[in-house]
Design goal:
homodimer, alpha/beta, four-stranded antiparallel beta sheet, 10 strands, about 35% helix, globular, binds adenosine-5'-triphosphate, binds magnesium ion
Chain lengths: ~220, ~220
Protein backbone atom coordinates (compact mmCIF):
# COMPACT_ATOMS: atom_id res chain seq x y z
CA UNK A 1 0.00 0.00 0.00
CA UNK A 2 3.02 2.26 0.60
CA UNK A 3 6.38 1.32 -0.90
CA UNK A 4 9.41 3.51 -0.21
CA UNK A 5 12.74 2.69 -1.93
CA UNK A 6 15.98 4.44 -1.07
CA UNK A 7 13.96 7.38 0.18
CA UNK A 8 16.11 10.28 1.34
CA UNK A 9 15.62 13.85 2.54
CA UNK A 10 18.32 16.48 2.91
CA UNK A 11 17.91 19.93 4.37
CA UNK A 12 20.25 22.58 3.03
CA UNK A 13 21.10 25.13 5.69
CA UNK A 14 23.61 27.51 4.19
CA UNK A 15 26.99 25.85 4.62
CA UNK A 16 25.77 22.59 6.14
CA UNK A 17 23.52 19.85 4.83
CA UNK A 18 21.48 17.79 7.24
CA UNK A 19 20.76 14.27 5.99
CA UNK A 20 17.54 13.90 7.95
CA UNK A 21 16.55 10.64 6.21
CA UNK A 22 19.13 8.52 4.36
CA UNK A 23 18.13 5.82 1.86
CA UNK A 24 15.17 4.23 3.64
CA UNK A 25 13.50 1.11 2.22
CA UNK A 26 10.11 0.50 3.76
CA UNK A 27 7.06 -1.43 2.68
CA UNK A 28 3.75 -0.91 4.44
CA UNK A 29 1.03 -3.52 3.94
CA UNK A 30 -2.74 -3.11 4.24
CA UNK A 31 -4.14 -3.04 7.78
CA UNK A 32 -0.74 -2.47 9.38
CA UNK A 33 -0.35 -0.82 12.81
CA UNK A 34 3.26 0.24 12.71
CA UNK A 35 5.45 2.33 15.04
CA UNK A 36 8.56 4.31 14.06
CA UNK A 37 10.80 4.62 17.11
CA UNK A 38 14.18 6.21 17.68
CA UNK A 39 16.06 8.97 19.48
CA UNK A 40 15.21 12.64 19.30
CA UNK A 41 16.39 13.98 15.94
CA UNK A 42 16.68 10.53 14.31
CA UNK A 43 14.33 11.40 11.42
CA UNK A 44 10.94 10.04 12.52
CA UNK A 45 8.94 13.19 11.75
CA UNK A 46 10.77 13.67 8.46
CA UNK A 47 10.12 10.08 7.38
CA UNK A 48 6.47 10.41 8.38
CA UNK A 49 6.19 13.63 6.35
CA UNK A 50 7.70 11.88 3.32
CA UNK A 51 5.32 8.89 3.62
CA UNK A 52 2.43 11.32 4.06
CA UNK A 53 3.34 13.31 0.94
CA UNK A 54 3.84 16.46 3.00
CA UNK A 55 7.51 16.73 2.07
CA UNK A 56 9.11 15.97 -1.28
CA UNK A 57 12.07 13.57 -1.03
CA UNK A 58 15.54 14.60 -2.19
CA UNK A 59 15.94 11.18 -3.84
CA UNK A 60 14.41 7.71 -3.96
CA UNK A 61 10.93 6.58 -4.92
CA UNK A 62 7.59 6.41 -3.14
CA UNK A 63 4.56 4.50 -4.33
CA UNK A 64 1.07 4.92 -2.85
CA UNK A 65 -1.25 2.08 -3.89
CA UNK A 66 1.05 1.33 -6.82
CA UNK A 67 1.24 4.92 -8.05
CA UNK A 68 4.61 6.72 -8.10
CA UNK A 69 4.18 10.02 -6.27
CA UNK A 70 7.65 11.56 -6.26
CA UNK A 71 7.10 13.44 -9.54
CA UNK A 72 3.55 14.68 -8.91
CA UNK A 73 2.58 18.33 -8.75
CA UNK A 74 1.67 20.08 -5.52
CA UNK A 75 -2.02 19.94 -6.46
CA UNK A 76 -1.92 16.23 -7.20
CA UNK A 77 -0.20 15.58 -3.86
CA UNK A 78 -2.84 17.70 -2.10
CA UNK A 79 -5.54 15.50 -3.67
CA UNK A 80 -3.85 12.30 -2.51
CA UNK A 81 -3.52 13.67 1.02
CA UNK A 82 -7.14 14.74 1.08
CA UNK A 83 -8.50 11.49 -0.35
CA UNK A 84 -6.36 8.90 1.39
CA UNK A 85 -4.53 10.33 4.37
CA UNK A 86 -5.17 11.67 7.84
CA UNK A 87 -2.47 13.40 9.89
CA UNK A 88 -1.81 14.08 13.56
CA UNK A 89 1.07 16.58 13.74
CA UNK A 90 3.68 16.67 16.51
CA UNK A 91 2.76 20.33 17.02
CA UNK A 92 -1.01 19.78 16.59
CA UNK A 93 -1.40 22.59 14.00
CA UNK A 94 -4.92 23.59 15.03
CA UNK A 95 -6.50 26.73 13.63
CA UNK A 96 -6.48 29.24 16.51
CA UNK A 97 -9.63 31.16 15.54
CA UNK A 98 -11.77 28.02 15.24
CA UNK A 99 -13.35 26.07 18.07
CA UNK A 100 -12.57 22.40 18.72
CA UNK A 101 -15.76 21.53 16.84
CA UNK A 102 -14.87 23.75 13.89
CA UNK A 103 -11.30 22.44 13.73
CA UNK A 104 -12.58 18.88 13.40
CA UNK A 105 -15.40 19.91 11.03
CA UNK A 106 -12.87 21.64 8.80
CA UNK A 107 -11.52 18.24 7.76
CA UNK A 108 -14.96 17.28 6.41
CA UNK A 109 -15.85 20.43 4.46
CA UNK A 110 -14.76 19.07 1.08
CA UNK A 111 -16.82 15.93 1.49
CA UNK A 112 -20.43 15.88 0.26
CA UNK A 113 -22.28 15.61 3.55
CA UNK A 114 -25.41 17.30 4.77
CA UNK A 115 -24.80 19.75 7.64
CA UNK A 116 -26.55 17.33 9.99
CA UNK A 117 -24.45 14.34 8.87
CA UNK A 118 -21.31 16.42 9.25
CA UNK A 119 -22.29 17.65 12.70
CA UNK A 120 -23.05 14.08 13.83
CA UNK A 121 -19.68 12.81 12.66
CA UNK A 122 -17.84 15.68 14.34
CA UNK A 123 -19.65 15.08 17.63
CA UNK A 124 -18.93 11.33 17.42
CA UNK A 125 -15.23 12.04 16.92
CA UNK A 126 -15.18 14.51 19.83
CA UNK A 127 -16.98 12.00 22.02
CA UNK A 128 -14.38 9.33 21.22
CA UNK A 129 -11.62 11.57 22.53
CA UNK A 130 -13.65 12.81 25.50
CA UNK A 131 -14.02 16.43 24.43
CA UNK A 132 -17.76 16.95 23.93
CA UNK A 133 -18.00 19.55 26.71
CA UNK A 134 -15.12 21.47 25.15
CA UNK A 135 -16.56 21.53 21.63
CA UNK A 136 -17.04 25.31 21.67
CA UNK A 137 -13.60 26.14 23.09
CA UNK A 138 -10.75 27.45 20.99
CA UNK A 139 -7.24 25.99 21.22
CA UNK A 140 -5.96 28.71 23.55
CA UNK A 141 -8.69 27.74 26.02
CA UNK A 142 -7.65 24.11 26.03
CA UNK A 143 -4.92 22.21 27.87
CA UNK A 144 -2.00 20.71 25.94
CA UNK A 145 -3.51 17.25 26.00
CA UNK A 146 -6.94 18.53 24.99
CA UNK A 147 -5.45 20.24 21.93
CA UNK A 148 -3.68 17.01 21.04
CA UNK A 149 -6.99 15.16 21.27
CA UNK A 150 -8.68 17.69 18.94
CA UNK A 151 -5.90 16.98 16.42
CA UNK A 152 -6.55 13.25 16.80
CA UNK A 153 -10.32 13.65 16.34
CA UNK A 154 -9.66 15.71 13.20
CA UNK A 155 -7.51 12.92 11.72
CA UNK A 156 -10.07 10.22 12.55
CA UNK A 157 -13.22 11.99 11.38
CA UNK A 158 -12.48 11.73 7.66
CA UNK A 159 -12.00 7.94 7.95
CA UNK A 160 -8.97 7.95 5.63
CA UNK A 161 -7.17 4.85 4.33
CA UNK A 162 -3.96 5.73 6.19
CA UNK A 163 -3.45 7.74 9.37
CA UNK A 164 0.03 9.10 10.11
CA UNK A 165 0.30 10.15 13.76
CA UNK A 166 3.38 11.99 15.04
CA UNK A 167 3.72 11.44 18.79
CA UNK A 168 -0.08 11.42 19.33
CA UNK A 169 0.17 10.59 23.03
CA UNK A 170 3.12 12.83 23.98
CA UNK A 171 0.94 15.22 25.98
CA UNK A 172 -1.52 12.69 27.36
CA UNK A 173 -1.50 11.00 30.75
CA UNK A 174 -1.29 7.22 30.87
CA UNK A 175 -5.05 6.65 31.08
CA UNK A 176 -6.11 9.09 28.38
CA UNK A 177 -3.28 7.91 26.10
CA UNK A 178 -4.40 4.33 26.60
CA UNK A 179 -8.00 5.19 25.64
CA UNK A 180 -6.88 6.98 22.49
CA UNK A 181 -4.82 3.95 21.50
CA UNK A 182 -7.77 1.62 22.04
CA UNK A 183 -9.84 3.77 19.68
CA UNK A 184 -7.11 3.65 17.05
CA UNK A 185 -6.66 -0.11 17.47
CA UNK A 186 -10.40 -0.60 17.08
CA UNK A 187 -10.54 1.58 13.95
CA UNK A 188 -7.60 -0.39 12.56
CA UNK A 189 -9.42 -3.69 13.15
CA UNK A 190 -12.93 -2.58 12.10
CA UNK A 191 -12.16 -0.25 9.19
CA UNK A 192 -8.77 -1.74 8.21
CA UNK A 193 -7.25 1.75 8.46
CA UNK A 194 -3.44 1.70 8.31
CA UNK A 195 -1.78 3.49 11.25
CA UNK A 196 1.80 4.71 11.08
CA UNK A 197 3.04 6.23 14.35
CA UNK A 198 6.16 8.15 15.19
CA UNK A 199 6.46 7.71 18.92
CA UNK A 200 8.43 7.47 22.16
CA UNK A 201 5.48 5.84 23.95
CA UNK A 202 6.17 2.25 24.98
CA UNK A 203 2.39 1.61 25.04
CA UNK A 204 2.24 2.19 21.27
CA UNK A 205 5.30 0.05 20.66
CA UNK A 206 3.71 -2.75 22.67
CA UNK A 207 0.47 -2.84 20.71
CA UNK A 208 2.04 -2.12 17.33
CA UNK A 209 2.15 -4.99 14.88
CA UNK A 210 5.64 -3.89 13.88
CA UNK A 211 8.22 -1.46 15.27
CA UNK A 212 10.71 0.15 12.88
CA UNK A 213 13.76 1.66 14.57
CA UNK A 214 15.48 4.76 13.22
CA UNK A 215 18.89 6.11 14.13
CA UNK A 216 20.54 9.08 12.37
CA UNK A 217 18.06 8.91 9.49
CA UNK A 218 18.46 5.19 8.80
CA UNK A 219 16.50 2.10 9.69
CA UNK A 220 18.44 -0.10 12.09
CA UNK A 221 17.78 -3.66 13.29
CA UNK A 222 15.82 -3.92 16.54
CA UNK A 223 18.80 -5.24 18.50
CA UNK A 224 20.63 -1.89 18.53
CA UNK B 1 9.82 29.08 49.67
CA UNK B 2 6.46 28.99 47.91
CA UNK B 3 3.26 28.94 49.96
CA UNK B 4 -0.10 28.72 48.19
CA UNK B 5 -3.32 28.91 50.23
CA UNK B 6 -6.73 28.30 48.76
CA UNK B 7 -5.34 29.23 45.38
CA UNK B 8 -7.96 29.20 42.65
CA UNK B 9 -8.19 30.10 38.95
CA UNK B 10 -11.38 30.46 36.93
CA UNK B 11 -11.63 31.06 33.22
CA UNK B 12 -14.70 32.93 32.06
CA UNK B 13 -15.79 31.79 28.62
CA UNK B 14 -18.97 33.63 27.83
CA UNK B 15 -21.75 31.63 29.43
CA UNK B 16 -19.59 29.02 31.13
CA UNK B 17 -16.96 29.28 33.82
CA UNK B 18 -14.16 26.75 33.94
CA UNK B 19 -12.77 26.19 37.44
CA UNK B 20 -9.33 25.17 36.26
CA UNK B 21 -7.82 25.22 39.76
CA UNK B 22 -10.03 25.07 42.88
CA UNK B 23 -8.75 26.04 46.31
CA UNK B 24 -5.28 24.49 46.28
CA UNK B 25 -3.10 24.51 49.42
CA UNK B 26 0.51 23.75 48.62
CA UNK B 27 3.77 24.42 50.41
CA UNK B 28 7.05 24.03 48.57
CA UNK B 29 10.22 23.80 50.64
CA UNK B 30 13.80 24.68 49.63
CA UNK B 31 15.60 22.12 47.48
CA UNK B 32 12.43 20.25 46.57
CA UNK B 33 12.11 18.14 43.39
CA UNK B 34 8.37 17.86 43.06
CA UNK B 35 6.07 16.44 40.36
CA UNK B 36 2.46 17.48 39.68
CA UNK B 37 0.66 14.57 38.08
CA UNK B 38 -2.90 14.06 36.91
CA UNK B 39 -5.15 13.47 33.91
CA UNK B 40 -5.24 15.68 30.84
CA UNK B 41 -7.16 18.86 31.71
CA UNK B 42 -6.82 18.39 35.47
CA UNK B 43 -5.17 21.81 36.02
CA UNK B 44 -1.42 21.05 36.08
CA UNK B 45 -0.40 23.77 33.61
CA UNK B 46 -2.72 26.29 35.24
CA UNK B 47 -1.34 25.55 38.71
CA UNK B 48 2.22 25.78 37.41
CA UNK B 49 1.41 29.15 35.79
CA UNK B 50 -0.02 30.40 39.09
CA UNK B 51 3.03 29.25 41.08
CA UNK B 52 5.28 30.80 38.43
CA UNK B 53 3.49 34.17 38.59
CA UNK B 54 2.52 33.91 34.94
CA UNK B 55 -1.19 33.91 35.71
CA UNK B 56 -2.98 35.91 38.37
CA UNK B 57 -5.21 33.77 40.63
CA UNK B 58 -8.95 34.41 40.87
CA UNK B 59 -8.73 33.97 44.66
CA UNK B 60 -6.42 32.71 47.38
CA UNK B 61 -2.93 33.80 48.40
CA UNK B 62 0.55 33.05 47.12
CA UNK B 63 3.78 33.82 48.94
CA UNK B 64 7.22 33.66 47.33
CA UNK B 65 10.01 33.68 49.92
CA UNK B 66 7.59 35.16 52.43
CA UNK B 67 6.37 37.92 50.13
CA UNK B 68 2.69 38.05 49.13
CA UNK B 69 2.53 38.28 45.34
CA UNK B 70 -1.17 38.21 44.53
CA UNK B 71 -1.55 42.00 44.66
CA UNK B 72 1.64 42.98 42.82
CA UNK B 73 1.70 44.92 39.58
CA UNK B 74 2.57 43.33 36.25
CA UNK B 75 6.04 44.95 36.38
CA UNK B 76 6.73 43.66 39.89
CA UNK B 77 5.70 40.15 38.84
CA UNK B 78 7.95 40.38 35.78
CA UNK B 79 10.86 41.26 38.09
CA UNK B 80 10.18 38.28 40.34
CA UNK B 81 10.01 35.96 37.34
CA UNK B 82 13.24 37.34 35.95
CA UNK B 83 15.13 37.21 39.23
CA UNK B 84 13.96 33.95 40.72
CA UNK B 85 12.25 31.75 38.16
CA UNK B 86 13.01 29.68 35.07
CA UNK B 87 10.29 28.20 32.89
CA UNK B 88 9.97 25.34 30.43
CA UNK B 89 6.64 25.73 28.65
CA UNK B 90 4.48 22.83 27.43
CA UNK B 91 4.51 24.49 24.00
CA UNK B 92 8.22 25.47 24.16
CA UNK B 93 7.56 29.15 23.21
CA UNK B 94 10.83 29.65 21.32
CA UNK B 95 11.40 32.79 19.27
CA UNK B 96 11.17 31.64 15.62
CA UNK B 97 13.59 34.19 14.14
CA UNK B 98 16.36 33.39 16.63
CA UNK B 99 18.74 30.44 16.50
CA UNK B 100 18.96 27.88 19.30
CA UNK B 101 21.99 29.77 20.62
CA UNK B 102 20.19 33.12 20.49
CA UNK B 103 17.07 31.72 22.14
CA UNK B 104 19.13 30.54 25.11
CA UNK B 105 21.25 33.69 25.15
CA UNK B 106 18.10 35.80 25.27
CA UNK B 107 17.49 34.62 28.83
CA UNK B 108 20.84 36.12 29.90
CA UNK B 109 20.66 39.52 28.23
CA UNK B 110 19.48 41.39 31.31
CA UNK B 111 22.28 39.97 33.43
CA UNK B 112 25.58 41.85 33.64
CA UNK B 113 27.86 39.46 31.84
CA UNK B 114 30.63 40.05 29.36
CA UNK B 115 29.84 38.74 25.86
CA UNK B 116 32.45 36.00 26.37
CA UNK B 117 31.00 34.93 29.73
CA UNK B 118 27.53 34.88 28.20
CA UNK B 119 28.66 32.86 25.21
CA UNK B 120 30.41 30.32 27.45
CA UNK B 121 27.32 29.85 29.60
CA UNK B 122 25.07 29.43 26.55
CA UNK B 123 27.40 26.84 25.02
CA UNK B 124 27.60 24.97 28.35
CA UNK B 125 23.81 24.82 28.51
CA UNK B 126 23.55 23.63 24.90
CA UNK B 127 26.20 21.00 25.55
CA UNK B 128 24.26 19.69 28.55
CA UNK B 129 21.21 19.06 26.36
CA UNK B 130 23.27 17.71 23.45
CA UNK B 131 22.60 20.50 20.97
CA UNK B 132 26.00 22.09 20.32
CA UNK B 133 25.97 21.15 16.62
CA UNK B 134 22.53 22.70 16.24
CA UNK B 135 23.41 26.01 17.90
CA UNK B 136 22.96 27.98 14.68
CA UNK B 137 19.65 26.39 13.68
CA UNK B 138 16.30 28.08 14.12
CA UNK B 139 13.31 26.29 15.68
CA UNK B 140 11.75 25.41 12.33
CA UNK B 141 14.93 23.55 11.43
CA UNK B 142 14.82 21.47 14.59
CA UNK B 143 12.93 18.32 15.54
CA UNK B 144 10.22 18.43 18.21
CA UNK B 145 12.52 17.03 20.84
CA UNK B 146 15.37 19.35 19.86
CA UNK B 147 13.10 22.38 20.31
CA UNK B 148 12.07 21.06 23.69
CA UNK B 149 15.73 20.77 24.67
CA UNK B 150 16.41 24.37 23.61
CA UNK B 151 13.58 25.43 25.93
CA UNK B 152 15.17 23.40 28.74
CA UNK B 153 18.62 24.90 28.14
CA UNK B 154 17.06 28.38 28.24
CA UNK B 155 15.48 27.69 31.64
CA UNK B 156 18.71 26.27 33.08
CA UNK B 157 21.13 28.90 31.83
CA UNK B 158 20.00 31.66 34.16
CA UNK B 159 20.48 29.42 37.21
CA UNK B 160 17.26 30.59 38.87
CA UNK B 161 16.11 29.66 42.38
CA UNK B 162 13.07 27.80 41.07
CA UNK B 163 12.51 26.05 37.74
CA UNK B 164 8.93 25.26 36.68
CA UNK B 165 8.93 22.69 33.88
CA UNK B 166 5.70 21.80 32.07
CA UNK B 167 6.03 18.33 30.54
CA UNK B 168 9.74 18.81 29.75
CA UNK B 169 10.20 15.25 28.48
CA UNK B 170 6.96 14.86 26.51
CA UNK B 171 8.73 14.93 23.14
CA UNK B 172 11.90 13.12 24.16
CA UNK B 173 12.76 9.46 23.74
CA UNK B 174 13.49 7.42 26.84
CA UNK B 175 17.27 7.89 26.69
CA UNK B 176 17.32 11.61 25.98
CA UNK B 177 14.59 12.21 28.57
CA UNK B 178 16.61 10.27 31.12
CA UNK B 179 19.73 12.38 30.44
CA UNK B 180 17.78 15.62 30.82
CA UNK B 181 16.41 14.41 34.15
CA UNK B 182 19.89 13.52 35.39
CA UNK B 183 21.04 17.05 34.60
CA UNK B 184 18.10 18.50 36.49
CA UNK B 185 18.62 16.17 39.45
CA UNK B 186 22.29 17.17 39.57
CA UNK B 187 21.47 20.90 39.43
CA UNK B 188 18.93 20.33 42.20
CA UNK B 189 21.57 18.64 44.39
CA UNK B 190 24.52 20.93 43.57
CA UNK B 191 22.82 24.33 43.32
CA UNK B 192 19.79 23.55 45.53
CA UNK B 193 17.51 24.71 42.71
CA UNK B 194 13.85 23.89 43.35
CA UNK B 195 12.22 21.93 40.49
CA UNK B 196 8.46 21.81 40.03
CA UNK B 197 7.33 19.56 37.17
CA UNK B 198 3.98 19.07 35.55
CA UNK B 199 4.30 15.68 33.96
CA UNK B 200 2.92 12.39 32.66
CA UNK B 201 6.39 10.82 32.64
CA UNK B 202 6.75 7.98 35.16
CA UNK B 203 10.56 8.54 35.15
CA UNK B 204 10.04 12.00 36.67
CA UNK B 205 7.54 10.69 39.20
CA UNK B 206 10.03 8.00 40.23
CA UNK B 207 12.89 10.36 40.93
CA UNK B 208 10.75 13.15 42.37
CA UNK B 209 11.01 13.73 46.08
CA UNK B 210 7.25 14.23 46.19
CA UNK B 211 4.37 13.66 43.77
CA UNK B 212 1.26 15.86 44.07
CA UNK B 213 -1.81 14.47 42.32
CA UNK B 214 -4.41 16.72 40.71
CA UNK B 215 -7.88 15.81 39.55
CA UNK B 216 -10.43 18.35 38.27
CA UNK B 217 -8.42 21.26 39.63
CA UNK B 218 -7.97 19.88 43.13
CA UNK B 219 -5.21 18.07 44.95
CA UNK B 220 -6.21 14.50 45.77
CA UNK B 221 -4.54 11.89 47.98
CA UNK B 222 -2.16 9.55 46.17
CA UNK B 223 -4.40 6.53 46.58
CA UNK B 224 -7.00 7.69 44.04
N1 LIG C 1 -6.70 30.11 28.78
C1 LIG C 1 -7.72 29.30 29.12
N2 LIG C 1 -9.00 29.70 28.92
C2 LIG C 1 -10.02 28.90 29.28
N3 LIG C 1 -9.90 27.69 29.80
C3 LIG C 1 -8.66 27.21 30.01
C4 LIG C 1 -7.50 27.98 29.68
N4 LIG C 1 -6.41 27.24 29.98
C5 LIG C 1 -6.85 26.07 30.48
N5 LIG C 1 -8.20 26.04 30.50
C6 LIG C 1 -9.04 24.95 30.98
O1 LIG C 1 -8.62 24.66 32.32
C7 LIG C 1 -8.55 23.24 32.54
C8 LIG C 1 -7.16 22.87 33.02
O2 LIG C 1 -6.23 23.12 32.02
P1 LIG C 1 -4.67 22.81 32.19
O3 LIG C 1 -4.00 23.32 30.95
O4 LIG C 1 -4.19 23.39 33.47
O5 LIG C 1 -4.65 21.24 32.28
P2 LIG C 1 -3.41 20.22 32.32
O6 LIG C 1 -3.54 19.40 33.55
O7 LIG C 1 -2.13 20.95 32.09
O8 LIG C 1 -3.71 19.27 31.07
P3 LIG C 1 -2.71 18.52 30.05
O9 LIG C 1 -2.16 17.36 30.79
O10 LIG C 1 -3.65 18.12 28.95
O11 LIG C 1 -1.67 19.50 29.59
C9 LIG C 1 -8.92 22.56 31.21
O12 LIG C 1 -10.22 22.03 31.30
C10 LIG C 1 -8.85 23.66 30.18
O13 LIG C 1 -9.90 23.50 29.23
N1 LIG D 1 12.79 21.93 8.23
C1 LIG D 1 14.02 21.50 8.59
N2 LIG D 1 15.13 22.17 8.19
C2 LIG D 1 16.35 21.74 8.54
N3 LIG D 1 16.61 20.65 9.28
C3 LIG D 1 15.56 19.94 9.72
C4 LIG D 1 14.21 20.33 9.41
N4 LIG D 1 13.37 19.43 9.99
C5 LIG D 1 14.16 18.54 10.64
N5 LIG D 1 15.47 18.83 10.49
C6 LIG D 1 16.61 18.09 11.02
O1 LIG D 1 16.47 16.72 10.60
C7 LIG D 1 16.78 15.83 11.67
C8 LIG D 1 15.60 14.90 11.91
O2 LIG D 1 14.50 15.64 12.37
P1 LIG D 1 13.10 14.96 12.72
O3 LIG D 1 12.16 16.07 13.07
O4 LIG D 1 12.68 14.06 11.61
O5 LIG D 1 13.47 14.08 13.99
P2 LIG D 1 12.53 13.24 14.98
O6 LIG D 1 13.02 11.84 14.98
O7 LIG D 1 11.10 13.48 14.66
O8 LIG D 1 12.88 13.88 16.40
P3 LIG D 1 11.97 14.11 17.72
O9 LIG D 1 11.83 12.76 18.36
O10 LIG D 1 12.83 15.04 18.51
O11 LIG D 1 10.67 14.71 17.28
C9 LIG D 1 17.09 16.68 12.89
O12 LIG D 1 18.50 16.68 13.10
C10 LIG D 1 16.62 18.07 12.53
O13 LIG D 1 17.53 19.04 13.04
MG1 LIG E 1 9.53 14.46 15.64
MG1 LIG F 1 -0.76 21.02 30.53
Amino acid sequence: IIEARNLAKDYNLGKTVIHAVKGVDLRIEPEEFIALAGPSGSGKTTLLNLLGCIEVPSSGTLQMDGREVTRLSADQLADIRHDKLGFVFQTFNLIPVLTAFENVEYALLKRRLSPKERRDRVMDALEEVGLVEHARHRPEELSGGQRQRVAIARALVRQPEIILADEPTANLDHLTGGKVLEIMKRINEERKTVFIFSTHDPKIMEIAGRVVYLRDGEIVPAGD
